[in-house]
Amino acid sequence: MRSVPAAVAATYAAVDSRAMRMIDVAHERSRTLGAPNSHHFNAAGAALPTSSVVEAVVEHLHREEALGGYEAAARVRDDVEGIYAAAGDLLGCAADEIALFDSASTGLRVLIDAVRPAAGSRIIASRSTYVSHALHLMTICRERDVELVIVPADEQRRVDLVALEALLADGRPSVLTVSHVPTSSGLVEPVAEIGQLARRYGATYLLDATQSVGHLQVDVAAIGCDGLVTTGRKFLRAPRGTAFAYVKRSFASALLPTAPDVRGSEWQSEGGWDTTSLARRFETWEASVAARLGLGVALREANERGMAATEAWLTAAGDDIRRRVREVPGVVLADPEGSRSAIVTFVIDGMTSAHAASRLSESGVRVVSVPATHGQWDLGDRRIPAVVRASPHVYNDEGDVDALVEGIARIAGEVRAS
User: Fold this and answer.
1) β-pair partners for 49
2) pTM of the model
3) Band (21; pLDDT cuts 50, 70, 90)
4) CB 206, CB 189: distance < 8 Å
5) Which domains does the chain have, with CATH numbers?
6) I want to staple 29 with a disulfide (CB 3.0 to 4.6 A). Which of 35, 113, 211, 311 is the partner?
7) CA distance 59 to 64
8) How distant, in Å, are the alpha carbons of 150, 197, 201, 226 from that of 174?
9) Distance between CA 399 and CA 290 in Å, rounded?
10) Distance, CA of 182 to CA of 102 (rounded, Å)
């Protein structure tokens, strides 16, 4: 049995059927142990993994238990190498342009540090920037006499392309960093158009794709970024502690890590070393092999499911939830007008978002509260102290959506009646 949100049929009708196939929700639920345990709407935080992902992790932990960590790693060397190819297939790049990290925040920090922004240069950031990355950027600019510019947003809260071009056109050396989909709303930035401007004016373009890889189709060539960083635990459904980056060959070869590691460098003499690899020069030797094997399984499953079908299903699910939540009295959608993603944010009048998320949890509906402290350039700029965020995945069926909307309506009704 195939079960889809009400809006999916119209979405598929408008797309070449040869490039799409329905998502089999019953199948996805059958291989997701946590799916029947709650109504899980936190894919944008940490999605539920499949049983195959968990089995890969646990199997390797037992291998380490029996053989030792290094010996176990040697047994699965080919499987680890396959992770790079699977990530490249997902993003449309070569395997040697992939670097593995423990988190997207680490990956972004390593790449920005390797650029070594000099005094008098400029970092341009989108308003959708996540807190960890924003704090790093502010620290760099404060300590190195680098200017930080928050690019203005247009009427849909996206990067204002006219304002961005005006900034870039002055010719100053610039690092441009954009969050594809923010943590604080269902907004989707016009990343390909931003890439065109970056190439035209010679800016270094880094994309935070933590909320888009595994959620939307992401093609680094079409986007035109120099680097992209994403995490495993969100829409990819991989274990926590996994992440990876795309580093364009020409970009990687021009950069040296600020903290070279034996993983990508060779100590050749008393005072000299050579960095020989491309993207892997930014990695460190030590990592959880078990977690990375889980990431590899999750990447293969995402590729097998197909990102065209996944994006269509998830964005339609978001549209359906957004439409139904909008109809609930006392609930205000916080997504900018025109948002098309699987992330839905809202506020219940008269109740803090943290309390609303807690109340929903009591009925088994898993959502989160995102405070302005996680996105001051977005939520803070909009004077919104916090939002409730719901983010479905392919294991959510119509019963889950009903439970979400009914829970929101019940809580909002109680507030109105009090």
Assistant:
1) none
2) 0.93
3) low
4) no
5) 8-48+306-417 (3.90.1150.10), 54-304 (3.40.640.10)
6) 35
7) 9
8) 12, 12, 9, 13
9) 34
10) 20
Helix (H/G/I), strand (E/B), else coil: 159: strand
At 243 the three-state DSSP class reads strand
Q: pLDDT for 127-176, tens place per residue?
A: 999 999 999 999 999 999 999 999 999 999 999 999 999 999 998 999 99
- DSSP assignment string, 69-94: HHHHHHHTHHHHHHHHHHHHHHHTS-
Helices 289-305 and 307-326, interaxial angle, to 10°?
80
In the chain, the amino acid numbered 115 is: V
SS3 (DSSP) at 202:
coil
The answer to whether the beta carbons of residues 401 and 320 sit under 8 Å apart is yes
Query: What's the chain's length in residues?
Result: 418
Helix, strand, or coil here: 197? Answer: helix
Is residue 46 within 8 Å of 240, Cβ to Cβ?
yes
Structure tokens, 143: 């300590």
Average pLDDT of the chain is 94
Beta strand spans in 38-169 (E): 39-40, 98-101, 122-125, 147-150
Residue 399 has a CB neighbour count (10 Å cut-off) of 11
Tens digit of pLDDT for each residue in 216-260? 999 999 999 999 999 999 999 999 999 999 999 999 999 999 999
What distances in angstroms separate CA 220 from CA 228, 241, 354, one per listed residue? 8, 23, 36
Which letter does DSSP use for residue 11 in this model? H
pLDDT of amino acid 43: 98
With 50 as the cut, is the pLDDT of residue 15 above it? no
Q: How buried is 380 (Cβ within 10 angstroms: 0-12 exposed, 13-18 middle, 19+ buried)?
A: middle
% helix, strand, coil for the chain, step of 5 = 45, 15, 35
Q: Which residue has the tokens 């304002």?
A: 163
What whole-number distance in Å separates Cα of residue 21 and Cα of residue 306? 8
pLDDT in tens, 116-129: 999 989 999 999 99
φ, ψ at 341 (rounded to 5°) = -155, 180
Among 69-83, 233-247, 263-277, the minimum mean pLDDT is found in: 263-277
